[in-house]
User: Fold this.
Amino acid sequence: MVQLEIYNLTLTKDEFSTTYTKFQPLIIDKVFEVIDLRGANECPFEVFILGNDTLYNGEGNNTQTVNLLINNISDKELKFSDESGFRVISNFLHILENDVQQTGNLKLKQFNSFNDIPTKPRSTGNDFLYYQNEYLLNKDESVILEISGLKAKQPTFKNPSGSYPFYLEYKNIPGYRNGKAKFYIKTGKIFIHYKF
Assistant:
């Protein structure tokens, strides 16, 4: 059921005319099928952390870098425009001393060469990282989102060591609706074992 209200207009026919106001609007209602043509609903990406996926939260922990591998798992190439962007969101940002949404240390990189992909500077209040130019990501190819300057908080009862869900949110990917893909960041002590 969709209802449309229109006011500040006059409908005329021959000698009869009616003016519709905000208090007595023209109401048009009808039941009809709505088809969403914005794009596919499924996520075109598989996302996981490349390399170490644990942030050290012991004494004297330092800032660390996380590399997200963003793999095109769709059945076609993805052509990003300068309006296509990524950001990281989570209900568990409190496990980090440095908010991943606020940090300026986000870079997009090519997977094979680790060369930077040009991106637009993010404006205040807009935490999406946008492509600067058009970029083509073929089927089964990947890009890397480098997130540096991350530091896990010390573990507490409310903030224990563990594996926490995060999301890579994407927008304006041609052929797809805006959406998100899940990945996990772990916190804990990192032990290094030496063999003699």
User: Anything to note?
Assistant: The two ends are 74 Å apart (CA to CA).
